Amino acid sequence: MPLTCKNYINGEWVESVSGRTYENRNPANQDELIAIHQKSNAEDVDRAMKAARAAQKKWALVPAPKRGEVLYKVGQVLTKRKEEIARDMTREMGKVIAETRGDVQEAIDMAFYAAGEGRRCFGQTVPAEMPDKFAMSLRVPIGVVSAITPWNFPIAIPSWKSLPAIVVGNAVVIKPATLTPLSVIHFAEVYEEAGLPAGVFNVVTGSGSEIGDDMVVHKDVNLISFTGSTEIGTNISTLGARNMKRVCLEMGGKNAIMVMDDANLDQALEGAVWGGFGTTGQRCTATSRIIVHKSVAQEFIERYVEAVKKLKLGDGLDPKVDVGPTVSEGQLKTVHSYVEIGKKEGAELQTGGKRYDGPGCEKGSFYEPTIFSGVKRDMRIAREEIFGPVVSIITIDDLDDAIDICNDTSFGLSASIYTQDINKAFVAMREVHTGIFYVNAPTIGAEIQLPFGGTKGTGNGHREAGTASLDVFSEWKSVYIDFSGKLQRAQIDDFEN
Ligand code: UN1
């Protein structure tokens, strides 16, 4: 009998009122049924939102340091269950075990970071203009947070969207990606074991096409935090605006590594393999373009292709495997359609370009790591997010050219430069229009203590993680306390000694 998972609403594990369920299968082996999940409907969402609303009122009154202590416990329980959760995550999402351990670790880091905020959550005290008057600002919770999360970081991203929200005094209802609900079910178990009061964290599983809109428009929702495709994010934004909801979006990327003529090529190659094909290229931050200086381009391409051909594909639970499957057949088809587009556009296919069904991979959605060279900036493979193991190499003349091409995209998440020249590194850092920038490292690998997010079409101006996440999940309240015993009119009465 496969595991059957329920929704988590108001501290209870409950079946969907729809009476319907769906299957969660392993993308490395379609024959492996991992679990059955609830196919929720609008009524389930309604119950979860109402539970969250009621719980939030009480949770906001718990002193923030105490809220932080619960999250500290969340970090401890996650640490205890790290290996088990990582293994299940590899089974449902496909990425290799070293990476799913990293995914859980990112949630652990966020738990301890957010726990600490329970004793900080700094506001400001500023001098007041009038005598016997006190002025300060406080962070207050927004209320109910509706989190809609993607499948590529099945627990890390839910952790970014819940832990900082909860420490500030909000309650959360999360709809995990249809393809990776089990990781969030485990996360709910962790919250429960850590002693989070009922209703503060709720999980409703199901498909975005059925309950996505309800997660946005429900009257109890104060804020929607979404990570996923530009198309869905744009719809959420429009729907949210019509319903006067606060919306925080993190969407696509077309991240580039710039390899300059003075780069340490060994290091750049290693970074390009990891950035391009780690997580099977399915990170928002994945390196999907490599902009390489003409004087090192030939050597770089030859060595890159050679290194990528050596990557071992297979079941991510095998520690010898470098690259797992794409997350689903649908994703594989999208990836392949872009490869066809690249070929038609005249880019040169250096390696890959097709499904992989070698030994042990016959029943999975595997795609060969793919490299195109001779890519021009206006080709679709150089402009659109592919979200898979496909890297486009563009050759350039100098740093200005590199920066110009790096910026020539509608997205602005992450970018990097490999150079030994500090001047070039600083110029690029200043001129590249992304939310995240790396020097001598690939475009992936952000840490939770700094803001995460991007410019232009990547988002709508918000950042996750770091103290920036507190700005997302709280309102500012400015407080003036007059203890003069009389009316003092700001901007009008003059203070005289
Ligand atoms: C994502 O790509 O959706 O910076 C998240 C990174 C990870 C998080 C990626 N820490 O690559």
CATH topology of the largest domain: Aldehyde Dehydrogenase, Chain A, domain 1
Instruction: Sum up the overall morphology in one term.
Output: globular
Q: List each distinct ligand once.
A: 2-aminohexanedioic acid
The CATH architecture name of the largest domain reads 3-Layer(aba) Sandwich
The total of helices stands at 14
Helix content, binned percent: 25-40%
**What is the makeup of the main sheet?**
7 strands, mixed
Task: Write the CATH homologous superfamily of the largest domain.
Answer: Aldehyde Dehydrogenase, Chain A, domain 1
Low-confidence stretches: none
Mean pLDDT: 97
Instruction: Give a count of the beta strands, DSSP E runs of length 2 or more.
Output: 22
Termini separation comes to 82 Å
Q: Largest sheet, order of strands side by side?
A: 15-16-17-14-13-19-20
Strand content: 15-25%
Number of domains: 2
- How does the helix and strand content classify structurally? alpha/beta
- What Rg, in angstroms, do the CA atoms define? 24 Å
CATH class wording of the largest domain: Alpha Beta
Explained architecture:
This protein is of the alpha/beta class and 497 residues long. The protein has two domains: 3-251 and 459-479, 3-Layer(aba) Sandwich (Aldehyde Dehydrogenase, Chain A, domain 1), CATH 3.40.605.10; 255-439, 3-Layer(aba) Sandwich (Aldehyde Dehydrogenase, Chain A, domain 2). Helices cover 39% and strands 22% of the residues. It contains 14 helices and 22 strands. It has helices spanning 42-59, 64-93, 97-117, 156-168, 181-194, 208-217, 230-242, 265-277, 294-309, 329-345, 380-383, 399-407, 422-431, 468-473, and strands at 3-4, 7-9, 12-14, 21-26, 29-38, 124-126, 133-141, 144-148, 171-175, 201-203, 223-227, 246-250, 255-259, 287-293, 348-351, 370-373, 390-396, 411-412, 414-418, 436-439, 455-456, 474-482. A seven-stranded mixed beta sheet has the order 15-16-17-14-13-19-20, sandwiched between helices. Helix 8 links the parallel strand 13 and strand 14. Helix 2 runs antiparallel to helix 4 and helix 2 runs antiparallel to helix 5 (181-194).
